[in-house]
Amino acid sequence: MNDGSGIAKLKENISKRLIGKDDLIRKMLTVLLAGGHVLLEDVPGVGKTTLARALADSVDCSFARIQCTPDTMPSDITGVSIYHMHTGEFEVIPGPVVNNIVLADEINRTSPKTQAALLEAMEERQVTIDKTTIPLPEPFMVIGTQNPVEMTGTYPLPEAQLDRFMMKLSVGYPSAESAAVMAKEFLAGTLHEETRPVMDVKTLLEMKEEVRGVMVHDDLVQYASDLVEATRHHHDISCGASPRALLELLRASQAAAWISGRDYLIPQDIIDTAKDVLPHRLLLSAEARMNRITRYAALLQVINTTTVPK
């Protein structure tokens, strides 16, 4: 069972690069242990790429970064098939997506066609290049970063791709105290020192296996299902959460419970996790948008009106 030492080492290692964001780091580790993908959305310069890179550097596994631009092609992500004239055969060259942790930086700056190149990899854990299917390594995690869609030169992610991200998180500005510490380390030249791995792949896979063993009572499965179902009937929501959302909500809740040192789920795990797993999957009604009601606010109404099992 989880003794907390492995997670503590990861948290401490990452917090050296991103100061004062312990709660955000915990959520990133929750997604990693749950086997999901995460989308980081915020304004430029708050540390989205730094967080993703620090997480990848803390685990001794393969890492690739895709810098998304308007002219990035799908083959730049998945790979290409090259014809060799001297042999008369094609050679498949896998792209950067065939790695354990893949950072798709500024994912909403590339075209929808290129964004869609990640769909198969994120859902089926494989990539197909000219009829050749390549399984992706385990663990596999996509970390997408994006600027708010209101900013110039961005393409909103389609709902089908948003639904494949387990959580959508915001980094946010640092507190005044954290900013002062960061500034001092910057002036001392120690802010972005190299982050060394503190965990290997074998240990991470063992932790993920323990997460899958966290006990979920039937009443809690029903509660999670009721929450997702309620999003489909709320007056402010025109399109509720998908069945995939229910499965990812349960898996993320298991990871949250495990990180808390428990091998069983409690209702609060589901409530807390739902606030990060569900909002980006909801589509608001026209009236709700006119009244400036947010997805998060609509979800809170759903949570507050759904009976919690005892």
Would you give an account of this structure?
With 310 residues, the protein is α/β, with parallel strands linked by helices. The chain has 2 domains: 5-199, P-loop containing nucleotide triphosphate hydrolases (Rossmann fold); 213-304, Magnesium chelatase subunit I, C-Terminal domain (Helicase, Ruva Protein, domain 3, Orthogonal Bundle), CATH 1.10.8. Helices cover 44% and strands 17% of the residues. It has helices at 5-15, 22-34, 48-58, 75-78, 112-115, 119-124, 159-162, 176-188, 201-212, 218-231, 243-259, 267-277, 286-290, 295-304, and strands at residues 38-41, 59-60, 63-67, 79-84, 89-94, 101-105, 126-129, 132-135, 141-146, 167-169, 199-200, 237-239, 283-284. It has a 5-stranded parallel β-sheet with strand order 3-6-9-1-10, with helices on one face. Strands 2-11 form a two-stranded parallel sheet. A hairpin with a 4-residue loop joins β4 (79-84) and β5 (89-94). α2 (22-34) packs across α11, α10 crosses α11 and α11 crosses α12. It is globular. The two termini are 25 Å apart. The mean pLDDT is 89.
From the 3D coordinates, which CATH architecture of the largest domain would you assign?
A: 3-Layer(aba) Sandwich
Q: Would you tell me which CATH topology of the largest domain applies?
A: Rossmann fold
Question: Which superfamily, in CATH terms, is the homologous superfamily of the largest domain?
Answer: P-loop containing nucleotide triphosphate hydrolases
Let me know the average pLDDT.
89
**Spatial order of strands in the largest sheet:** 3-6-9-1-10
Helical content stands at: 40-55%
Number of strand segments: 13
| Global Rg | 20 Å
Order of helices and strands: HHEHEEHEEEHHEEEHEHEHHEHHEHH
SS field, number of helical segments:
14
Number of domains: 2
Terminus-to-terminus distance: 25 Å
Shape: globular
Q: Which class best fits the helix and strand makeup?
A: alpha/beta
Low-confidence parts: none
Question: Beta-strand percentage?
Answer: 15-25%
Q: What composes the largest sheet?
A: 5 strands, parallel
Q: What's the CATH C level of the largest domain?
A: Alpha Beta
